[in-house]
Each structure stands twice: as C-alpha cells, then as structure tokens.
Design a protein that fits this description.
Layout: H1 2-19, H2 22-39, H3 41-55, H4 61-83, H5 90-96, E1 97-100, H6 102-109, E2 115-119, H7 125-128, H8 131-134, E3 139-143, H9 150-160, E4 167-170, H10 174-182, E5 186-190, E6 199-203, E7 206-210, H11 213-221, E8 225-233, E9 237-245, H12 254-275, E10 292-299, H13 303-322, E11 326-333, H14 339-356, H15 361-366, H16 371-377, E12 384-388, H17 393-403, E13 406-410, E14 423-427, E15 442-445, H18 454-467, E16 477-483, E17 490-491, H19 494-511, E18 513-519, H20 525-535, E19 543-545, H21 555-562, E20 565-569, H22 573-581, E21 585-589, E22 592-593, H23 603-613, E23 618-620, H24 625-633, H25 644-655
Length: about 650
C-alpha cells in the first residue's frame, strides 16, 4: 500500500511538472531541496558527516553546512530533471548539455570493441545517461534493481529510457555484456558504491569500496574505458566531460592491475569532487565497508578519567581487529573557559541541541570551551567518540553528532539522558539502588574501566624491568604497594601511612619479601615525606617511586605485573579497580571519610565493601593489613580476579 501511494503520487507529480516551463520546474526542485534540508534530519546529518569526513582539515563547519545545503538543492533539481526526461529529444538535449570530448567516444568505437562509459553519482547523472543515445550511439546502462520499490523503479526507468533510446538493464550477465560490446555498443557503468564486494581504495583520505567490474572487463576484453562527469552550469544548463580512454595498467597480475587502475580513476573522481563538492551524492554510507576506523578520546585532563577512556579505546581496537578493521586512537584535551561556562553549556545545550545539528553544534560549543580545544575539535573525523566523566558528557554528544560517530560515555553523563549515547559504561557504585532503570545501551561494571589484562601486565613488567634492571635479580616474594591521594570526601592520613609502613616492613621480614611502592600524582607532600623517610634506604624496598618527582607510565602496570600481593589505598577507585583486575591477591586499606551533612556513607566505602563482599579484594583497616598480607602469603585466603573487561568487550561487539 505504501509503495502504491508513492507510485501514484510520483506519476501525478511528474505529469504536473512536465506541464510547467523548465525554469519554473527547477525552481520547484530547488524549493524541495531546501525543505528537505530543513526537515530531513537523518539524511542531512549523514551527508554533513560524510562531507566533514572528506573535508574536515580544509573547511569550517559553516562551509561544510553550505555544501550540504547545496547538495540538497542540487538533488532536488536532479529529481525534477529525471521526471521531465520523457520530454527530451536530441535537439533539446543539445540545447541543455554542452559536451566536451564527444570525439573520445567515436574514436574509441572505431576499434569495434564497444566502449565502457564510466561515471560516478555526480551532478545530474540521470541526464548524463542520455548523452550517448542523443549522440546517436547504441547505448545500454546497467542499473541495480530496487527490490523494495519495484513498481516505482520500473516507472523511473521508463522515464530514463527516454522513448526507448536508452536501454536500462539490471542483472546483466557476462555473456550479454560481451555480446553488447561485440555489437560495438556503449555501456554505462558507475564506479562508486562498490558495496561489500567492491575493492578498497583510498578515497578522500580514507579507504572506500569501489566497483571494479568495468576495469575487469576493460582488462580482459581490451575494451576502451572513458571516464565521464556532468556538472551544472547556470541553472538549467550542464557541461558534460568525456575524458580520453584510460591508459590501463596491464602487468598480467589481475588483482594488482585492478587496484592500480582503480587508484587512477579515483583520483579523477576526487579532482571533480573537490572542485564541486555539492554535486556529489553524499547521502549513502561512503566508507561503510572501510577496513579503517578512527577513535577519538576527549579528555578533561584528569588522569583517572583518561585511563578509563584509554582502556575502552584499547578494548574497542581489539574488537575491531576481530573484524580485520585497523583502527587508530587520537586524544584531544577539551577544557571549558571556566566552571561557569561549563555549567551554562550543560544547561543551555539541553534546549538548544535539537536545533543545532549538525552545522551549529561545534560553533555553539566554541562559545564555552577554550580556543585551543576548539581548534583541535574542528578538524576531527572519527567513527567513535569516547569520554569519561560528567564534564565532557555534553561535548561528547555535540562532537559525535557533528561527525555522525557512535559515542561512548563512561560514568554517569551529568544531567544528559542515557539515550543520547550509543553506549554508556556505568560502574555499579554510580547506580542508585531502586532509582536506576536498566537500559539496553547501558552496561554495569563492578569497578572502573582499566587496561589491565595478562598481556598488558607482561608488557608493563618488561618495561619496568628494563628501566630498573636491578629488579631482575630480586627473586624474593614481592609486595606491590600503590598509594593514591585525597578525593572529595575521603583521604589517607599520615598516621595511617605510618601504621601501614610499619606493618609492611615487619611482614616483609617475616615472609622474606620485597616492597615495590609507588605514589600517585595526587598523593600529598606530607604523605610523600613520610614514605620517603621510612622506605628510601630500607633494605626491603628495592623500588620506591614518588610520582610527583619521577613519573613513569609503566610504573603501576609494572608493579602489578611483578607483585605477588598487591596492597593499595582505598582513596582511588581507579587504582583499586586496576589492582582487583590484575589477578593478584589484593588488599585495600580503608581511607578516612569526611563526615557527610546528611549522614550518607561515602560511595568509595560502599564500593570497597561491595568488592570485599564479593571476594575481589580484602578491605581492611590500616592496622590489620599486616595480618591480611601474612594470611594471603600463607595461602589461608585469596581474592578473585575482577572480570569487567569481558563484559565490556561483548558490549563493544554489539555496538559495532
């Protein structure tokens, strides 16, 4: 019923359009394009993001938007010309279309092997399909049948055939193809939109699937291939360029020859597209079958947030690699001009965002972020955007919308609805019992996202041993100690650290163990001084790293890889999560908690107690850590390995 309604509407509308003067008809087509640009947001966003993917490095959002608007206008006019095709004859065609290089067709036919006229979806390609017929050559166009709308497809092909002067063939077999060439016919084919069976070639900076059927036939049958393009001139007039036959590369290796010749053709395509980008049909998924993928991590500068984003980007790369997709990760730091700017952006974007997509998104964001941040964002092109924390939740939505990328948010995304993201990764401690409603695009993890897995730990361990070779000769039992820093309502006191270190030195002597300790950049200077005084020259401490003085990227991973038991402070959820994911027995000493006005328990403490209850860590007061270490060393008790990475990987597989 739907197809029948569309079919009859097109017939009636086409009849009406053919009654009007051409200039007025094209004005209607232009108006249709403008209306579609305003209301057809799905195609507008796809076209805009495709154009941005191609020209992000050279054009501003305003320029890309202007090209998108021009595309809709051009497409509206092309539609009108398709509906008016039954009115065309040779005389009218020659009045409207100026052909350059028509001699290239006649000279190529002189060989008696037929000609392949190769084109792309550019300009009014519907009119271009009539060119050879109007020049008096037998002409056949291979088209892809539209099975979903077969009646409408037949109607439009009847318009395209222009009274039978052009034969449109779908599903043409090799024998029919060869017979047509033997009859010295001209066969029209397109090279773009190669689909899943196409050959990948670099197209406007990224690999895209292109059709090689024409090239294959040209190589096998020695058939001349002429590339052609049509472009609009002064409203109703067009210029069609038919280039000289391609000088095909013929080495005898068919696959290499296909690739080499396709590269030559694509360069011709790019030349015309860069010259008149609004005339190319950007509505389809240009790079759908690409084996390349770009991942953008937008960072707020917080190390913990960045490590979580980095871990998801790494997991995403592994999942993409399972499908033979090579991916790259780019990190961009985005800073708001002030906290007030961030708050205003979050509030205003809730109301303004629906009216800004796609072209107005980044210019709107520009008013609130630093100019350096904006200058980095404006040239980005990616398939995935990852952010962590509430401060960049809105920026993630705006950026991913601008480039039509899938977006991933880690932690609760401020006041933005979860439906704004393709995937939200939410740690269990960020869900409020009884109020959080599970959604399909939200996965709940036990702890914070991290990079920790056996392969990562081995790499980091080797890097640390390379930096500190004296550790290679240390064959004793190893206690890895990770000290964090204050965060909101929790902290580690100097007295706790003194008690902890006293116990660690005692138990290290008792079980014949070495202590490998590192602080974080958030560790207070007072705590650092206590640690330095107690351990700097201690015989049981072959490795002491104060992060604010010497910060090595492999420190935490290396210590986790070397340690037999891990002891970490409970003030860093990220650090605890990494330790619990390492597969090593993990002991966490509980931090001090600032009293809440409402008497609520700290989410950090709730998080630690939850992991302790489920056996992932041993949560202990500082004064009981020594006994816990002894019990673990004597195999009296052990902890389980946290398995969030497997859950995250499965969610990412579903996402792509």
């Amino acid at each position: 019923m739907k197809e029948l309604i569309i079919y009859n509407f097109v017939r009636i509308f086409a009849f009406f359009i053919r009654l009007l003067p051409l200039t007025l008809s094209l004005f209607i087509g232009k108006s249709i394009g403008v209306i579609a640009y305003i209301f057809d947001s799905r195609h507008r966003i796809r076209a805009y993001s495709n154009i941005k993917m191609a020209f992000s490095a050279s054009k501003t959002p305003q320029e890309i938007d202007a090209i998108t608007r021009g595309l809709f206008i051009s497409y509206g006019q092309n539609l009108i010309e398709l509906l008016r095709m039954p009115l065309l004859n040779e005389k009218k065609f020659n009045e409207l279309v100026r052909i350059e290089g028509r001699e290239n067709i006649s000279e190529s036919r002189g060989k008696g092997k037929g000609v392949i006229l190769l084109a792309m979806h550019f300009g009014s390609w519907e009119i271009a399909s009539l060119s050879c017929a109007m020049l008096g050559y037998p002409y056949r166009v291979i088209v892809k049948p539209q099975e979903r709308h077969s009646r409408l497809d037949e109607l439009l092909n009847s318009y395209r055939s222009c009274g039978g002067s052009v034969i449109f063939t779908s599903g043409m077999g090799a024998r029919d193809f060869i017979n047509s060439l033997k009859n010295n016919e001209v066969i029209g084919m397109v090279v773009d939109q190669g689909g899943k069976d196409g050959v990948l070639v670099n197209f406007l900076g990224r690999k895209a699937a292109m059709s090689v059927g024409a090239i294959r036939m040209g190589l096998k049958l020695d058939v001349p291939i002429c590339f052609s393009v049509i472009m609009r001139e002064n409203g109703k007039f067009h210029k069609m360029i038919i280039e000289k036959p391609l000088e095909l590369v013929k080495t005898g290796d068919m696959e290499k020859d296909l690739q080499a010749n396709l590269v030559k053709i694509v360069k011709r395509m790019e030349h015309y597209i860069k010259e008149r980008p609004h005339e190319y049909m950007w509505f389809y998924k240009v790079w759908k079958y690409s084996t390349e993928s770009n991942i953008i991590v937008i960072s707020d500068g917080k190390a913990g947030h960045f490590r979580q984003s980095e871990s998801i980007a790494s997991s995403l790369q592994k999942v993409l690699a399972e499908r033979d997709i090579v991916s790259s990760v780019q990190t961009v730091k985005v800073f708001f001009k002030s906290k007030t700017h961030r708050l205003f952006f979050t509030f205003l974007s809730l109301f303004a965002r629906p009216f800004l997509y796609p072209a107005g998104a980044l210019p709107f964001l520009r008013k609130f972020i630093t100019e350096d941040s904006y200058s980095q964002l404006i040239s980005l092109r990616a398939d995935y955007v990852i952010s962590c924390g509430s401060s960049l939740a809105g920026a993630n939505i705006f950026l991913s919308g601008d480039i039509n990328a899938k977006n991933i948010s880690i932690l609760k995304p401020s006041i933005f609805d979860f439906s704004n993201y393709n995937l939200v990764i939410l740690p269990e401690h960020d869900t409020k019992k009884g109020t959080f409603k599970k959604r399909e695009n939200v996965i709940i993890t036990k702890a914070a996202c991290n990079l920790i897995d056996p392969a990562y730990l081995n790499i980091q361990k080797d890097l640390l041993l390379s930096r500190f070779p004296h550790l290679k000769n240390m064959n004793r039992f190893k206690l890895g100690v990770l000290i964090g820093g204050p965060s909101k309502d929790i902290y580690i006191s100097e007295n706790q650290i003194k008690i902890l270190l006293h116990q660690l030195k005692e138990v290290a002597n008792e079980i014949n163990a070495d202590i490998l300790l590192t602080t974080s950049r958030r560790t207070s200077e007072a705590i650092e001084q206590v640690i330095t005084k107690e351990l700097k020259k201690h015989e049981r401490c072959p490795l002491l790293i104060i992060a604010n003085r010497e910060n090595y990227p492999e420190t935490v991973g290396g210590i986790l890889g070397l340690a037999d038991i891990v002891i970490t402070s409970g003030d860093s959820i990220s650090m605890v999560s990494e330790a619990a994911s390492s597969g090593k027995n993990t002991i966490v000493f509980l931090p001090k908690v600032l009293k809440s006005l409402f008497g609520k328990e700290s989410k950090h403490i709730d998080f630690l107690k939850s992991l302790d209850k489920e056996g992932y860590i041993l949560a202990r007061e500082a004064g009981r850590v020594g006994q816990a270490v002894y019990d673990v060393a004597k195999n009296k008790i052990k902890t389980n390995c946290l398995g969030d990475n497997a859950v995250i990987a499965e969610a990412l597989r579903m996402l792509i």
